Amino acid sequence: MSNAWGGGYVTDITYDFGYYREQSPQQLKLTCLLSGVAWDVPAEGAHYLELGCGVGVGALIIAAANPSWRVTALDFNPAHIAQARGMAQEAGLDNITFIEADLTEFAEGPVAAGLPPADIITTHGVWSWVSPGVRAGIVRLVHAKLTAGGAFHVSYNALPGWQGMLALQRLVRESGLRLAGRSDRQAQAGFGVLRELAAAEAQSFRGDARLASWLSDHPIHSPTYLAHEFMNEHWSPCWHADVVKALSAARLDWVGSAGLVENFTELAMTPPQRAVYDRFEDPVMRELVKDMCMGRMLRHDVYVRGASRISAAARDAALRELTLALVVPAPRVQLEVQVSAGKAELSPAFYRPVVEMLAAGPATVAALLKAPGAAATRENPAELAGLLVGTRQAVVMARPGAAAEGSAMRLNATLARRLATTENLNRGVALASTAIGGGFGCSTSELFMVGRLLAGETHDRIPAWSAELGEGLDEENQGRVRETMQRGRQETLPLMRMLSCVPA
Questions:
Q1: Cβ proximity of 355 and 333 under 8 Å
Q2: Which of 30, 118, 374, 487: CA 20 to 30 A from 78?
Q3: Cβ pair 41, 137 in contact under 8 A
Q4: Is the pTM of the predicted complex or chain greater than 0.85?
């Protein structure tokens, strides 16, 4: 049962750790440029503010990867703040502050008054999970602290994507509250009732493809995630237009989606759907049409306070200056990708030479557009950068060539000690990289390996490492851990070294 002071928000168990690349500064920068909006956040000395940081892994990575920045991270749950502060202290990070705060009243208090203006404010997993009072507090804080030209990122459960799932959430929460005590057990019990009613062919769930998907995927979600997703009293999916209206009080202009592929209408919608979309000029109405067509359940929206619109030529010039790097081994790059409108193929005649060039190391978009052997009918820097990064196969670099040292290496060692454990084997995390200015996603096995390498061991000890990480598992699963670690050494470790996640 959630604590009495929680106000209906799940507080009796801590939230899962995670790193969400949509919150990373370079992803937000690319979102703005793709949308034709200037990026005015300074490369050095910026202030990054996260609202609802959980146990702080994302904020810690941003702080370690940007040592000249100031990072402030707020959360309502004191258990989250205590854990986050412990990791910051262990990693020796002195440019990050964690604050326990109730966002319904924080904006008017002395602590908020003492914070400097923020260049980036981000909030993930908060807006549609909290009360109207908390949302109003977020708007007041953003109004008070986001600098002119600053970026605001907000993610939330979106309508109409969640429309058919309203019954699922209500059933899981109401039945779970009556069948168990702790929130994670409530969610599990509620899903048990849901499965029984679905098997009994309850009319409300008959023929619901999304329900069937949730039931099949339910076992792969952690009980902690399910509790925080389904057991909050004020859980409320939102229409994009309503969020835009609420944030207008903070003088914010909606820019685009940090889920980058969603900004390409030809990939998000079919031709008949685009014909309806094109009838409207109002961007909010266009997003309503897009949401109706895509059915996306989670939005990652980017706003700017005083968006400065730039010409197509200026946008393309800024995009050409970006440096990209692969975050998957070149042989595993996929040129056929699943998008909302179906499957899309990135032209092999152009993208294969581009991938070959990136396999040798990071390169500017301008250079990639002229990759040797790349056949292109026209130069399109937005497509190249947006699709390679949007399909999670590349990242934008903040500081190409930055060394693997200092705060990023200390945090990576701390994350390995804290998070690379047997119970987290099916979880993903990230490593801090000053070159990226954010995180490099990796598996728990890879994180364990990095931790040992940073401790001075050599990778010929992988059999011993995999046995230690897989302790208590049966022989088959221990073999999988060993194979994952060996593959990570062969395929991922060279990328980690190239991107300065570990020393060369």
A1: yes
A2: 118
A3: no
A4: yes
